[in-house]
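Office hours follow-up: a student asked to see two folded examples consecutively, so here they are.
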Amino acid sequence: MWGSRRPGPILVAAVIVVAVIVVAGLAILATGSPSVRAQGPDETVSAAVPLEPGTLATVVDDGSCLRLRETPGLDGAILTCLSPGSVVVVRAGTVDADGFRWQAVRTEAGREGWVADAFLRPVVTPAACDAARSPVAIPPGLTRPLPSAGGGTYLYWGGGTVAGLLTEAQWRGCDVAAVWAWIPERAAFVGYHPGAPEVVNGAWRSQFPEGRMPVGTILYVICAGPLDAGRTRVPAPPGAVPPPLPWAAAPARFEGPAPPDVSAVAAIVVDETSGATLYAKEAHEPLPPASLTKIATAIVAIEGSDLDRWVLVDVDGRRMRGQSLMGLRPGDCFQVRDLLGGLLLESGNDAALALGRAISGSDAAFVELLNLRLGRLGLEESHFSDAHGLGGPMHRASAYDLAMLSRYAMQLPLFAETVAQTTGEASGSRVITLRNGNRLLERYEGADGVKTGFTDEAGRTLVGSARRDGHRIYVVLLDADARYGDAERLLDWAFAAYRW
């Protein structure tokens, strides 16, 4: 009978294989392996060549997750699960333990830990980004710490404007008293003194007529002393207009129709040249701005970086479903100006993260720069908690602040040029066609900006700008069901009701 027969060799082998797999699987579950696989912890499955620090790597798609651990080894505390396709930045440091080579990494969210490199694959990057990442390349911003307690130091500048330099210096705790830039062709320094009359900084303006200092400029920065907490937000004098200073008188109102009713919860109309408010409805109430946040993101990026700098992207737009996106993937290589196009035209949340990380190194650090820039502009009714505007309880802006922020941004040539385009193109490691989501450009004659936004919390938001007879005005609408209709009616009314 079948039950009394001795099992054949094939059956015995099969039983042994199944037993081994079960035992190995139980051991894996007990220890918490780097990934749920058939390999036991005694098998060495590391890649032949260690990954290079500073490069990107993706988690191998094996239908499971890679566990980020606090310390190298199977006994290390599990910090988080990295799903297949996740991107990590390779850090310096490897340790062999438990049959694996453990690699120090940093996740997209900025968390640091250890993973077995057998489950990582390097991202192949374009030559331009490889060169930009080389040890001799000058990074964005200031290349060394500042003497925040007072005194001066020499350093290299990573490209951008003096406004960007002052923002980063403040972030580093330095109250800048003066900046001196070395001009090789003149074999001399030229100085800039924050807050001084224009005549004092005339030589600086002549040397940098477009306001931008190139990458590699040698600077001598003098810090007056430490910044206290109160200096992070510089209060503006009562009635003062935030920068830029008015360059013409405010328009005069004459008898005419009353302003139209609008659907917006908050709204404002502002004259560009004077900064005067022509119409306001709850204009100083902080509300969720949605993607209007990206106006500030663009300002910090333009002022704080070289526009031609190549950026190696570590953001995966495919993992940001339901959001407005440029369409970035890990390993993409684009210049800062391309990412700005994706930020302002497509309203790409992925572009916002890529820019922030390229400029300041992390999402959190870039948010600090955003809020410092708001403070330096005297915009006290706003506070941001991210670079893209998805928002949270602490992410708010008033219609007034957004109008003044836009008025400032439109004085930056690349910003004004970009937001006026209906289409664009980002050309880097691949080509991405960009389309502007601001329909006001197509609907209203003379419209030349600025930005739209939407989240469930914020509703529909808009900063619109338009020129007529050489005069530009701004309209800001927060939580507006009929934002384009509201904008058109307010613009028509303002151009008809005021004389310049």
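And the second, which I mentioned at the end of office hours:
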Amino acid sequence: MSPALDDAKVLHHQRLLDVLWALERGSLSIALVVDEHDRLRGLFTDGDVRRLVLRGVPVESPLAPHLRSEFIAVRPETGRADVLELMKARHLGQVPIVDGDGRLVGLHSIRDLIGVPLRPNMAVVMAGGRGTRLLPLTERIPKPMLTVAGRPILERIVLHLMSFGIRRITLAINYLGHVIEDHFKDGTALGCHIDYLRETKPLGTGGALALLRDRPAHPFIVMNGDLVTQANLGAMLDFHQAGGQVGTMGIRRYMHTVPFGCVRLEGDRITACEEKPQLRQTINTGMYVINPELVAQIPKDQDYGMPTLFQHALGRGQLLRAFPFEDDWIDVGQKSELARALGQGDGDEAGEPASAEAGWKA
């Protein structure tokens, strides 16, 4: 716990004067009232105390009768995009972080979440796929607009990009693209700038980049629009810009357990038996950073994948590197993975996540 957060804490049996001192010491515009076990009992903002003083309540009064004991808090595992959206929806400047027992473990500040330095880099999100493996869910809604824990996957991606200082985002659309445009428009409502690459036919995970009107001035992120992830995209950008490569591919380890005993043979002679072995592979996460010059190497009006772009760059002897992710990552490409994403969100397609906000009452 940070020193500022410790300074902002007040015990529930103290006075309003102690709340004022906590507001002064912590400089967080909020005082957090806890019990002897550090369980969060309520909070005071600057405005709460100011209104009490204007009503003539003595500062020597016990704080308990005036405590705002109903409040919004989040769990430590709640993602940045979810927290940011919650704060914007409820017009909150701070949101406490509590564990499963209600103990105060941290504080999200809007300054920390959107006050990150703005990056000159842009991002292109591939959101044109039909999602045939998810039919009938995708008959009337494009795959990236399916909701996970009450929010479209693509909106989660946009908010996640913004949390790393990226404010210029381009969405490549095709199938039911008007649904995406109607939802995001120019991005103003979310605090970013969104424009569109409109495919007239499927162009794969890389082909839409040939539609860019202007070549980007800086390395930029390219990612699939059906990912539910907390990947540190800022760290991948920093890695790319420090490494001198023309392209960076996000990777992660993948393990698959064969559900049967496996046998090795030489002819008909058994040489080894292994019960349910685990196969380990390194997989492509569908998240990349590429230099602007690679755009010129993408053929126009062709179905062209990002792995093909990397393979062709290797053939030309260009330097590529891999950036490993350990963060949560789900590619919502089939119903089993969508179900897993919904399970991680502790909600359903129409509901809010149980972990997104929790009201605690003293």
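Two things to take away from it. The mean pLDDT is 87. The chain has eleven helices and 20 strands.
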